[in-house]
Queue: 3 jobs
Job 1
Amino acid sequence: MGALDEGHYCVVLENGVKLLDGGFEHEPETVAIEDAVKVLLQGLGEDVNREGLRKTPLRVAKALREGTRGYKQNVKDIVQGALFPEVGVENGTGLAGGSGGLVLVRDIDLFSYCESCLLPFQVKCHVGYIPSGQRVVGLSKLSRVADIFAKRLQDPQQLADDICFGLHHGINPTGVAVVLQCSHIHFPNFQSTFLDSNHKRLSNITVGSGLGTFENHDSAHWVDFFGLLRCRDISLDNIRSRNSFKDSWCPSRSQKVDLSGNPDMETAVATIIRSLGQDLCRKELVGTPNRFVKWLMNFKDSNLEMKLNGFATMPLKTVGITNYKDNIRSEVNLSLWSLCEHHLLPFYGLVHIGYISGEEINPVGKSLLQSIVHFHGFKLQVQERLTRQIAETVSPLLGGDIMVVVEANHTCMISRGIEKFGSNTATIAVLGRFSNDPLARSKFLQMIPSYSL
C-alpha cells in the first residue's frame, strides 16, 4: 500500500490523470492563498471564472505550499537511521583509507523560490563530505537534506549555508562542502516594444559553503572536491563572495521600489507570504510584495499596444503553385516571454516563422514580427494558444501561407511536483499551403537552428 497508508490518497483530475494529493487543499493557509491569487488575477483585469483560470488559484496555492514544505521538515528526521557503520573511518581524521576519503554527490537538481521576487530559480547542487566516527550516511539522504532547504524562500548563498550547516550538525562529519550553480530567469526591459533578441535570459551565479576541514579555502580537501567536479567549469575562483552577489543575483533587486503600486495586490502578496509561515518584517522580504506586483503587472493585457507601422499595406511578391517550395522564407529566433495562466509562472523561449514569398521581409518587417510575438506573449497565456495567435496575426501580413514554431522552457515544469529539469516544449501552427504539404513543413523545420536556451 505504501504512501496510501500514510494519509495520502489518489485524486482523479478532470482529464482522468491520477495524482497523489498533499492533503492540504482545504487548510486555512491554502484557502487564504487562493483568495489572494484571485485578487492578483482581478488586478490584471482577468475574469477569475473564465475557462482556464477557474482552478488557477488552487493550482498556485498548492504549488507554493508544496514548494515551501521544507519549513516543516528537519534534517534529523531524514538522516536518523541512515548512518551506517563502516570500518576505516576514524574519529577526527576521516582519511584512514578506504571509505574514509571524500564522498561527493554531484549534479543534484533542485529548485527554490527566490525570496526577493517569489519566482522559482533552478539549482545544480554538489555536496561533499568527509566521514568520521566510523559512519557513512546513505547517499540519497544528501539529496533529501538539500531538498529540505531548497523548499523554502531562499537566496543562493543562504541556501548553500543552510545545506552545509544542516549536514554538518546532522551527520557530524570531519568536513562538509556545498557548491551550488543557480539560474534565475532574467526578464527584459518591459518598456521596450521591440525586444533585444540577444537579451540574456538567465542570471547565473555559483556559490559555495564549507564547514569543518572545508572552512579554510586553502584546504587540500577543496582541491579534491573540485577535482571530482571535473568538466563543470567550477573552481574557488569563480565562486562569488557572500557580499558581492546580493544586489546582482535577482534582477528585480536592481529596480526601484514602485511607490505608485497597487496596494490591494501588494496586500494579497503579503497574505501569501504570511500563509507560507514567513515574517514580512524579515529584511529580505520587506520589498518582495512590491517587486512581485511590479513584475506581474507587466502581463496586464491592456499594457501593450501593437503598432503595425503601415506594414500591412506593403504587399510581398506572391508565388505560383509550381515553384513555391523554392520560395520558403523564414524569420527565426524571435524572443518570447510569457506567463502561464494555469500556474502564474513564466515561460520563455524562441519563435520561428516560416512563409512563402518571392522576397524577404525588410528589417522593419522583422521588428514588426518581434513586436507581434511580444504583444501576444506579455499576457496570461498557454503555449498552444500563443502559437495559433501569432500565426493568425502574421498571416495577412505575409501572404497567408504561414508556419509558426514556438520552443519554450516552462518554469512550471521544474517548480511543481513533476520537477522535470531540462525539458522544453515545442508547438506548431500552420496556415495556407503549409497545412497540407508535409515537404514544405519539413523544409522550413530544417531552417530552424538547434534549440538552446
Job 2
Amino acid sequence: MVSATTKIYLIALHTSLAGMLWGLDTGSIGPITQMDQFATSIGHLSSGVLGIYVACILLSASFSSLCSGYVADLLSRKYGILTGGVVVLLGTIISASAKNFPTLVCARLITGIGQGQSISVVTIYLCEISPQEIRGTVATMLQLLIVIGIALGYFVAYGASRIEDSLAWRTPFILEASMAAILVSGMAFMPYSPRWLVERGRVDEARAVLQKLRANSELVEEELCLIKGSLEEQSHERASYREIFQKRYVRRSVLSIFLMSFQMLSGIDAVLYYAPILFTQAGFSSQRAAFLASGVSGIISLIFTIPAQIWVDKWGRRFPLIGGGLSIAACFMAIGALYAKYGGKADGVVYLSGKGPQWAVVMLIYMFVASFSWSWAMVIKIYACEIIPTRLRAKTCAVQQLSNWLVNFTVALTAPLFLRASPSGPYFFFGSATLFTTVVCHFFMPETKGKSLEEIEDLFEMTPRAIGHSVTA
C-alpha cells in the first residue's frame, strides 16, 4: 500500500517533468547550434542570429507565464499543466522535423509558450496539494529536475554529436518530445488541486482528494475549513496589479522584482546556453571536448543544488545571497582579469594564451556554476515569494517571473555578440552586476529565517531605520 506522502512525492516527480523539459532545452540548445551537422543542414548562424534563436523561447515563455494563472483557474491546475505539455510536444516535434531556420524559430516560440504555461502552473499545483510539513521539499523538486535536465541535455548532445547526419542535432528535440508525451499522458491521471475544487464548489471531490493525499485523515475537515475561509476572505478583497506598487507595499515589491531580474544578470544562462563557446574560447579546440566540458558543468550544478535543498532553511536567506553573491562576483572578476591580461582577438575570434590561464578559466567557470547553484539558484525565488503578502502573492510573482524571463531574454540575445566582441567585458559586466546586487542585499534585505509570513510582513511594516537594525542584528 502506497502511503499518502509517497503519493505526493510521485505526483511531484511526474509534474516536475515540466522542469526537466526546460532543463533539457537549456542544456542542449547551445551544443546543438555549435554542431557541424547543424550548420550543414540549416546553415551557419552569425552571433546575432544565434542569439535571436536561443533567446526567442524566453520571450514567448515570459508572456505565456502571465496568462498561466487565468488558464489554471479556468481549466484547473492539472489541465493547465497538461495543455502546456501539449504545446511543448507540438513545438518539439516541429523542431525535430524542421528543414529550415524559420521553421526552427517558429517551433521554438511555440515551445516557449508551452513551457511558460506548464512551469508556472506546476509551482502552484505542488504548493496546493502538499501538506505544510513537506511543502518546501515538494515545491523545490521542480528546480531539482530542471538541473537534472540541464546535465542530461549536455550529455545527450555530446553523445548525439557522434552521429554523422542531421539526426545528430534532431536527437535532443526527439528526447524532449518523448518527455513531453510522458508528461501529457500522465497528467490525465493526476488529482485535481483541492483548493481549485473548493473554489468551484466541488467540496466533496476536494474532500476525497485530501483523504488520499493526507496521512492523517482526521485533519481533512480542518484543512477544508481553512481552504474555505481563505477563499472567502480573498473574495472580499480583490488584489490588483496597481496595488503591488502602492506606498505600503512598494519597497518589498521592488526588492523582489529587482532580485528576480538581477538573478539573470549574474550571467548564469550565458554560461548554460553558450557553454561550448566559453570552453572553446578557453582553449578547447575539439568540439566534442567543449561539449564534454559543458556536461561537467551540468553535473556540478546538480551536485551543489542538492545540499541547498536540504539546508536552505538552516542557512537562512542572507548568507546564501550575500556569501554566494561575493563568490559569484569573484569568479567572474577573476576570469575577466585573466582575459584582460592573457586574452585577445585574432580574425574576430577571442582567444586565451597559455595553458595555465586556460585551465584557470575553466576551473573558475566550474566554481561559478557551483556557487550559483547552492545560493542564488534556490534562495532568490523563495525569498522573493515569501516577502510578498498572501493576497498580492500571485500577481506579484507573475510580475517577478515576467521580469526574470525578459532580462534572461536580453542576456541570451546579446551574449553571443558580447562574448565574441570583447575578451574580458562580459565577465566584468556580470561580475559587477552581481556585486551590486550583493550590496543591495546587505543593506536592504532583512533576514526571514525562522519567521512566519505574518512576522515577515511586520519586518516590512517597520521604518527603514528599524529594518536596518533588524538586518544587521
Job 3
Amino acid sequence: MAAVVTELEPEAAAAAAAEDATRDGAEEAVDTGPRAPPLLAGNRLSLDLYPGGCHRLLHLCAQQSPQLLQVEFLRLSTHEDPGLLGATLAQVPGRLPCLRSLVLKGGQRRDALGACLRGCLTLLPAGLSGLARLAHLDLSFNSLETLPACIPQLRGLDALLLSHNCLTELPEALGALPALTFLAVTHNRLQTLPTALGALSTLRRLDLSENLLETLPPEIGDLSSLAELNLASNRLQSLPASLEGLLSLRLLFLYSNLLTSVPAGLVHLPLLARLDLRGNQLRDVPPEFLDTPFVRLQGNPLGEALPGPLSPPGTPVVPEMPRLFLTTDLDSFPVTPQGCSVTLACGIRLHFPEGAAASPITIRYRLWPPEPRLVPLGPHDALLSHVLELQPHGMAFQQDVGLWLLFVPPRAQRCREVVVRTLSEESWTDLETHLEEEAPKRFWARCQVPHFSWFLVVSRPVSNSCLVPPEGTLLRSSGHPGVRVTFPQGATEEPRRVRMQVVRMAGRELRALLGEPEAAVSPLLCLWQSGPPSFLRPVTVQLPLPPGVTGLSLDRSRLHLLYQAPPAATWDDITAQVALELTHLYARFQVTHFSWYWLWYTTKNCVGGLARKAWARLRLHRVNLIALQRRRDPEQVLLQCLPRNKVDATLKRLLERYRGPEPSDTVELFEGEKFFAAFERGIDVDADRPDCVEGRICFVFYSHLKNVKEVYVTTALDRQAQAVRGQVSFYRGTVPTEVPEEAEAARQKKGSDALWMATLPIKLPRLRGSEGTGQWPGTGLSLAPLNLGDAESGFLTQSNLLSVAGRLGLDWPAVALHLGLPYRELQRIRLEFRDDLDGQIRHMLFSWAERQAGRPGATQLLVQALEQSDRKDLAEEVQAVLELGRQKYQAGILRTGLAPGDPAPPSLLASESPEPAQA
C-alpha cells in the first residue's frame, strides 16, 4: 500500500494544475446551464446525479467558497476519469474538513442488459485519513480489489459500505475501527475473514452475503454488540460453536449455503427473533429447531437418507447442489457447471442440472407487466401470468433447465389446458407443460427450456397434433372423441405437422343470440398445418351433428356448414360446395386445405353474419368498471375492471377504505383489448406516468389478471371556493381527440363497437381552513398538518418527511420493516400502488407517521430504521434537521426569558410553539 500512497501524491500535487486545466469547462458545466440545479443545499453537496461531478467540485474548491466549510454530506459518482477522480478526492480533506458522510458509488450507469456498472475507483488517497469527523463511508459498486490503507485510520467511522466490489480478503487492520457499528461487504469475492474482526466490539450489523466464504473464524463470536448477521449465499459447510456467544443477536441469515449441521445453542440465544436456514444441506436438526416459529428450514433435505452407496474411505464428499433464494433487490444470479436451484423473489423457480452450463455465467431476469407486444394470444386463449424474461437470450444449455411459473388457475377448465408459451427463433411456441399444486390456490406450470427468452402461461383449448406421413394417419380430438380427421395415403409427399383445436359454445347463449329455441351448433373445429397450404388428396373431416339433431330426423335445408380462413373475420356458407355425408350422429366432408369449420342448424337465412356475432360472443368477457376514492385521501382514485361475478365481493372488501359511485353497467371486452380512462370536467391526472397517454390512463384487459390502477388526480379549479364535481369516462381502443364533457350522446351507443363504455362521477371535496395548507405542491395529496416529534427533541414536518420519501427509492421496504410495519402491510401497499413507487413510499411513511403522532421517541425510531436499512446518509440529514429544531427551540426559550433557572407556569411552556426545522 505504500506504493499506492506515493503514486497518489503526485496527483494530489497536480490538483492545482487540474483545477486550472478544467476551470473553464467546470465553470461552463456549473454556471451556463439554463436549468442547472443548485449544487450546495445547506450542508449537503450532491454531485452523483449530474455529469462532470469532479469538475464541479474542483470548481467550487477553486472558488474557495466559505460554504464548503459547512458541508457535512458529499455524494460523488465514480464513473469519472480515474486520474481526475483521484485529483478531486485529494482536495476533499483540506476543503471539506467538517465532512461526516462521503458516498463514492458507481452503479449510476447500466449495460445493455440493464445491469449496474461498477465505478472506476480502485484506490483512495492517503490524505482521506485526515477526515476526523467522517462517520459514514459508502464505496459500493466500485472496482476495489484491496481495502485502501486510509480506511482503518478513520477512527470515527460508524458505517462502512463496500458492497459490489472485487475484494478477496479484508485486512487485519480493520479491527482498529473502535466506533464501527455497521459493515456491509456483500457481493464480493471474500474467501476468508480476518481474526481481528472479533475486535469490533461496537459492531451491530454485519452483512457478508453473496461471497465465497467456506469457513468462519472462531473470533466472530467475540462481537458482543452484534444484533444482525447476514451470511447468506456463501459456501459455508459448518459454523463455529462461538456463535452461541452472540447474546445480542436478533437476526441471523444463513440461507443458500452448504451447511450440514448447525450449533444446537443458536436457537437458545435470548434475543434471537429470526434464524433463516433455507436452502442448505441439513438432514437432521435438534427437535427444538423444528418447534421454534422463527426458524426457517424450507429447502433442506430433512429426514432424507444420504444418496447412493457409501463412498470408500478417503473419498472426498461432494456437496449437494446449492440452493439460492433471491431477494427483491436482486435481478441476477450466478450459475456454475455444478448447477443450482434458484427461487426468485416473485416465487418463480429454476433448476439448473449439473453440467447445464459449460462455464460460469450470470443469469438476469425481469418480470414484465403484460402488454400486447409481449403477449401473443390466439382467438380463444387467456393469459394466466405476467411475462418472465430470462437473459442472455438464445443461450443454449448443455441440458434442459427446469422452470416453474406461478399462474392464476383458469375459471373454465373443461376441454382446456394450461401451457407455457415462449419466443423461439422469432416465433412463439408452446412447451410441454406439467401442472403442480403446492398449496391451496398456489399453482405452478413446470416445463423444460433449452434456452432463455420470454415466458408466459396461457390457457388454451385442448390441442391435439400429429405428424402426417405419406402413408396417411388418423387425428382425433382428446376433448371431443367424435371429432376426427382422416388423412389417406398419398395426401402428402413429405411429413407435415398438423394441429387441431375444438371449441364449444353453450346452447343457451346461442338461442339467446338468435331468438330461436331449436337453433343448435356443433363444436367449432380449428385446423392448422405446416408445409404447403393444400394436400395432394382430399382429407376427410368428421364433426358431430349439433345437439338434439340426428341424421334420421334433420331437415337438410336447415343444416349449414360454415368456413372461415383467418385472419378474415367473415364466415362463408359452403354447404352447396361440399358433399355432406350424414350418419346418425356425425357429418363427414372432404377438404384439401385447412381452416375453421362449424356446423349450424337454424331456420335463419343469413347464417354467416350470425356466426360472426356468435364467434365474437365466444371470446367476449362481461365486466363492470369501478372508480373509488380513498376515504382519507380523495385525490387517490382506484380504477378497476372486474368480472361481473366478482363485483360484489370486491366492493365489500374495498369499501372499508374507499368510497364512490355504483359500478358501471355491464360491458363486454375481448382478451387483450386496450381501453382508456379519461378524467374530465376539471379533473386531471396529477403526475406523469408511463401508462398515461395525453392525460388518459391506458389499460389492457386480461380476464384472469387484476386490471386495477391507482391514480393521483388534481384540479386547476379553486377548491377553497367549492368542491369540484368531475367524472372519469372509459373508452375502447383509440380515445377520441376531443373527449366530450357530456357523454349523453355516447350513452345511446350500447353496441360492442361503441368507443364510449361508461362514465362515473368523481368529486374532490372543498378545502376548508387549514386543509389547504396541508397540501403538498406537486404531489396531489392533501392531509391534515403533521408534526412528528416534540419541541425538546425536535420536529419533523410534512416537508421534512416528503424530502425523506423522495430519496428512499427502492430501500423503502427495508425501512418499513425496521419501523415495525408487518410484512403483510408491505404486501398490501405494493398491491394498492403497484404502478406507483412514489405512492408506495409516501403511503408507507405517512401512514406510519400518523400512527406515531404525539408519541415520544418517534423521530429517533425513524433515524434508527434508516441506519439499519443502510441509509446512513438520510439518517444523518434527519439528525441535522432535528438538531436545528432543538437549537431554534432553545433560542426561542432564551428570547422569551424562559431559560432554565427562570421558572414559568407549565401552561405557558406548553403553549410555546417552536418553529420547526425545514429540510
